[in-house]
Give the backbone structure.
Amino acid sequence: MSIDRLMIKRNVPFSLYDVDILSATDTELNEISSTMGLALSLDEMKTIVDYFKKEGRNPTDIELQSLGQAWSEHCCYKSSKPILKEFIFAIDHPNVLSRGDAGVMVFDDDYGYALRIESHNHPSAIEPYGGAATGIGGILRDVVCMGAQPIGLVDPLCFGPIDTKKEIPKGMKHPHYLVNGVVSGIRDYGNRVGVPTISGGFFFDERYTGNCLVNVACLGIVKRKELGVNYASGPGDVMILLGGRTGRDGIHGVTFASADLTSTSDEDSRGAVQLGDPITKEPTIHACLEVNQKGLITGMKDLGGGGLSCVVGEMSLDAGGCGADVDLEKVPLKEDGLAPWEIWVSESQERMMVTCKPENVEKVLEIFDMWDVLATPIAKTTDTKHTRLFWDGEPIFDMDLEFLTGGPVYNRPYTIPKVSTKKDEKFPDVKADNATMKAMLSDLNIASKEWAIRQYDHEVRASTVIHPMVGKMNRTGPGDASVLMPVPGRYKGLAAAVGCNPWFTAENPYNGGRACVDEACRNIVAVGARPDALTDCLNFGNPEKPERLGEFREAVRGLGELCKDMNLPIPSGNVSLYNEAPGGVGILPTPMILGCGLIDDVRKAVTADLKEEGNRFFIIGRTKDEMGASLFFRKFGGKGGDVPGVDSSYLKLMIDKMLKTMDAGLVRSCHDCSDGGLAVAAAEMCISGQIGLKMDLSGMGDMCAERKLFSESNTRWVAEVREKDVQAFKEIMGDDAVCIGKTGGDRFIVKGTGIDLSVAEIRKAWNDPIWDLMGGGWE
Amino acid sequence: MKAGDVKVCVLRIEGTNCEDEMYQAFKMVGADPEKVHLKQLTGQVSDSLKRDIEDYDILAFPGGFSAGDYVRAGAIFAARIRSAIGPQIRKFVESEKPVLGVCNGFQILVELGLLPGLDDVMSNEPTAALYTNDSARFECRPTLLRNDNRGKCIFTSEVPKGKVLMIPSAHAEGKLLSMDPKFVDRLEENDQIVFRYVGEDGKDAQYPWNPNGSPSDIAGICNPAGNVLGMMPHPERVLTRFTHPDWTRGYESEEGDGLVVFRSVMKKLL
């Protein structure tokens, strides 16, 4: 069937069609949606028909394309909004300075810090290098348009196992190729724009083989009096388009992101992947910050998903219900011959929009000219609440903004998932011995990520106080949070750490969501900072499947409730649904959290590497029989078991106590217990400190050594305390800290088990696996 | 001359990205730094923004990826400088005013022909190159540098010979090569070798202590007159102890190891 009869070419010297939806049948409406790549459902198409019936005319192709963008899951959160509203948006906090394109929190009396995370999953699955690079580009713009200088990037990534021998789903790419491409993309973009990549994470599981996740986060710093907004000041503002030219790259990016990947996504959607150019971005950042500092602009917003079609409407509507008149032919293009609708929805990179008063246009243009950054006035705001587009004066688009941006919201059906419990636990037949210990440390989820970390510049801007890898030079190990000292001359620090456990979330979404928050908090506290705010990227499957939406709802409920209890605001975030490989294999449900914390004096910060011989070694928190979804179970074939829960009042108490000991300078080193439990945390501290440790777990109660060592109960740390400070440390911690060992020698020994290994052996087990797979190891 | 009268031109174009910390470094030693875009020196801006290189006492090239470094690192920046203000730059160097290039800045100085400068203050063609690291990767890691200069370089006047400093590296192209088979010997004779990478025992550096495979472990060199220093590692990233990667393991001074480079040049000027 063809819809040709419904596409009526208008007699103008450029490409424009009126689309006869008023006379179209249901089948034809579906056909229009799919042929034009709108990804709108029949019901949504009918709503549009009703609107144009009232208008007494048919839409143009550009109007329909604009609706396809604005009503995509990516842009209007139509499946997730009711759930987010219930559990996330409700958390209020006086220190939230803005919930704009990036969240902004109080840093100190003069400064705020910006935070935002988002996903770039589908583009990276198709074209890992470009997808990851443009992910960085996009998140930088979100921070810049708050008027904030970007100061740190964080990139948590999920892939299939690098060494998988299993068949790769048709049309998908091998994890080894994806890992290489994504890391190179982050490196070449992040390093070039001069923003340090300070933290991140790698999560490997077969369930990411068909749909990798590339989440990117950015932190920024802004003088509170220069904090910007993302909208115009009212009618009569001029909209100036900045940065890159507009081309055919990145068309339909948001609709591509709002559907499952298919075996032909590679060929069909290559054009949806944008091309990044950090050397247009770098001066654009300078110029944008300068016009903001000089008070020449009224608002700033980045062109991301949906391109111009989204930014023009949002900047004017949010300015107290304005509209805008756009001269679309003025948009600078990469090539001739783009149809107006292509220009309107293109997601070409490196573009920003600023609004300013007419009298400041020349001054703004001069600053961009100085940096050789293209800047073109293309629109002005009006008091009509309508977006109107003109091409050389010919009207081609006239829509009510409330209708355009007021996309549908669905309360889709969901089913509450069954959770893993102790009742159906099957404990693997494995003992705590040297082979087990080495296998745990060699698991790709534990093993050293130095291959990637050292390709990222994590020190540019000279404010990195706690680095992603800690310990002895060229013998470093994993850290917890990274810490920045963003204002020169001030010792106040900003800590950042990822928290995420997709395996917990798969087996018990509610507990999993909570565990992600707990882990982010633990990491922040482990360096001596106080958790202050979170930003979350919720990566889940197809929300039209009730069991997937149930996972989403439970995970969001878990993390939202915990944040509310903890009084931790989430001033920004992102939802990425439809993460499914061809054939409907869903990813692990992955609520990726970036936690931020504050530390008044970075000189009191603590790192995870063991410092000296002869110190006492403590476990802090309650180690419980919670083996469900633990690395130990996953690795050795355990089944069922309770998934670790979080007690919010205990977490609050432990944070207070731990920070008190650190503030008093009682803690020489500290590390959080996460994947692999106590055993892995303790071993990692030996690996980075190059000091041995002798542990005796008898003070930890009656459980078997395997449970004590490998349980992944939340709200736990291990810490090194000097003999002379033990008394003071215990006075603060009480029964919540138990001494389980002493540092010294060059062996890692757990009394009463078969674990007795040299530090060199555990380092090798941990250090080599990813170097061996990716190449370039030297130890 | 008072410290506050020392005017420092921190020169940048698009892709220069270490200018804030370079600016901060000179600020910390009391100088009067200014971030200047190359277009401000070449006159392609409005009058109020125009600057003259002659008005500055120190010229600093920060790190980054100038113009993207999509051809040889530093080549585009150097070509733009040479074509627009080549003679003024030569005059600046001939008058023995200090010039510092760090990382991409070092690459630019080599592309400009200001380093190694064996046969002329500013050669028409580059006579050396900073080549791709042996690992073929970007390497961001701490490095230990030993001051091997016998006294000619004005940026190390306050560093005892043989002293080892921790100054971090972050580059993909840092291996200093020349066609001249006697290259290292000539540098040595002229006292042009300033910093060498060393291992943790203070001796010859193997990878990763020498992060790029530079022959003779060379990390930084000066010109024969000693007023131009180019180095791959970043002293401006360790102005305080608390950006050292291992400061939590103990330290003696809150001053970072990199500050002495800036203190040294100021001492020479005042």
User: Anything to note?
Assistant: DSSP finds 26 helices and 32 strands in chain A. The CA atoms of residues 115 and 517 of chain A lie 16 Å apart. Residues 4-74 of chain A form a domain with the Helicase, Ruva Protein; domain 3 fold (CATH 1.10.8.750). The first strand of chain A starts at residue 7 and ends at 9.
